[in-house]
Design brief:
By secondary structure, the chain is α+β, with helices and mostly antiparallel strands. The protein has one domain (7-100). It has one helix at residues 85-100, and strands at 7-14, 17-26, 29-37, 46-51, 55-56, 65-68, 77-82. Strands 1, 2, 3, 4, 5, 6 and 7 form a 7-stranded antiparallel β-sheet that branches. The two termini are 26 Å apart. 12% of the residues are buried.
């Protein structure tokens, strides 16, 4: 995991806040790291890690993760999002182990 390199994708302003997105691949699965920098200097930046997998909305995740229904909502699918990179990596490892297990 230490060798992950996040490539800058986009950086933009929205309502006075700065949003920055970077991407990388882990086990051939994309991870998007989005950082939200509030315009208020007294607030901490907020990170969000989206795993590039389209899964059923009912998929069980860690306590720090949730299924984002902003994608494919009508079909009942979403993308998993996590608060930390470690949790996103752990989810991908678990997902890949499920694919390998007979």
């Amino acid at each position: 995991m230490d060798d992950l390199i996040f490539e800058p994708l986009v950086r933009f302003m929205s309502k006075g806040n700065e949003i920055q997105r970077c991407t990388t691949m882990y086990k051939n699965i994309g991870i998007c790291w989005e950082t939200f920098f509030p315009h208020n200097i007294f607030k901490d930046p907020i990170d969000r890690f989206t795993v590039d997998l389209v899964l059923p909305i009912g998929t069980t995740l860690h306590e720090s993760g949730y299924m984002n229904p902003n994608y494919y909502t009508d079909e009942g699918f979403g993308m998993p999002e996590f608060k930390t990179l470690d949790n996103a990596i752990e989810f991908i490892d678990s997902y890949c182990n499920l694919l390998i297990t007979p």
